[in-house]
Amino acid sequence: MRPTPWSAPCCSAGVTLLVTLGALAVCEPRRDPRGELLYAMPVPPVVVWLARLTFVVGIDLLVAMTASLLASTVLAAPVGPLEMIGSWLGAALLGAALAVFGSVWRSPMVGAGFGLSAWAVGVLGLGVVPLPISADASAAVVTVWSTNPATLGAAAALLTASTWLVTRPDRTLPED
Fold it and tell me: Hey, CA dihedral for 67, 72, 78, 80, is it positive or negative?
């Protein structure tokens, strides 16, 4: 679904940034006051990590869906609620998945770089700022950052890889 001029700058960029920052907050192990508790529980740490990630990203998506529904019905947006949600869902999930993968793979700073780079490419792909790139490159950016099976599959694959990395003890970030 191609975002409309009204919904794209407001919803797509804002929601993608919100979900990406929420995912990054969950993946910062040094700031977690319950870090020791993860290893003292009878539940594997990866399950606790997944539950926290699902909770935070789920709340972010719920808030964004509620705002989209309100904008499309109460404010009489020129698009329906499903089109509005479709304008940001793929980009938000892919941005969050890139941020989580970078955080788990290397460091929270790499994750922030991945997530914010994904957000910036998505914003540039909206066409708000004219870019000196070809129409084919612009169409590719719009396709990748829209809600489609390939984008959702890529987000799922990145989250699966992140989960696998969390289960590996040699990938645990050192406590400075």
Answer: positive
Q: What is the phi-psi region of residue 107: left when phi exceeds 0, alpha when psi lies from -120 to 50, beta otherwise?
A: beta
Cα–Cα dist 157/160, whole Å = 5
Tokens of 150: 């390939």
pLDDT digits (tens, 9 = 90+) for 54-88: 999 999 999 989 888 887 777 766 777 888 888 88
pLDDT of 164 higher than 60: yes
CA–CA gap between residue 115 and residue 95 (Å, rounded):
5
Structure tokens given for 67? 């705002």
CA-based nearest residue to 8, from 63, 68, 69, 98? 68
Inter-residue contact 109 to 30 (CB < 8 Å): no
